[in-house]
Design brief:
The chain is mostly helical and 139 residues long. It has helices at 3-16, 19-26, 30-39, 46-56, 71-81, 85-102, 122-138, and strands at 59-61, 67-69. Strands 1-2 form a two-stranded antiparallel sheet. 7% of the residues are buried.
Length: 139
């Protein structure tokens, strides 16, 4: 499935909860939208693609390796531009951590995300348990 089709599916679910509701809202036959989602948006007529993307607030940039911009992303980018160097660095760092988490490249498991296990020896485990007990006693 191509990126645009995947993005359209995600935005329909997020904004309209179902393909049927979206179909009624944009006045495109349900069979047309189902076909476009099943076979890929690229196989639909240009007018249909424009109508779907416009209704969902999706804008495309670049012909090769297209980048699709939703209203949410446009708002984030507008806010990012207003940040100072410290703010841009902070956002870039958070994005990198989240990218690593989502692509299983990192070892961070925030919000129940995927993380990698760390295997330690029995001696190291005992030392860690003792250290935690000492911390708890100090409280």
């Amino acid at each position: 499935m191509d990126d645009l089709t995947r993005l359209v599916q995600e935005e329909i679910k997020r904004q309209y909860k179902s393909v049927r509701q979206f179909s009624f809202a944009v006045d495109i036959p349900l069979s047309t939208i189902n076909s476009a989602l099943h076979n890929g948006i690229g196989g639909s007529s240009f007018d249909t693609v424009l109508q779907i993307c416009h209704a969902l607030g999706i804008k495309a940039f670049q012909v090769e390796n297209p980048f699709y911009l939703t209203d949410d992303m446009q708002q984030i980018l507008s806010q990012y531009v207003e940040l100072d160097d410290y703010g841009r660095h902070t956002i870039s760092s958070v994005i990198q951590v989240e990218y690593d988490r989502c692509t299983a490249k990192g070892q961070i498991a925030a919000f129940g995300g995927r993380g990698k296990s760390v295997h330690v020896s029995s001696e190291q485990e005992a030392q860690a348990v003792d250290a935690l007990r000492n911390i708890q006693k100090k409280k």
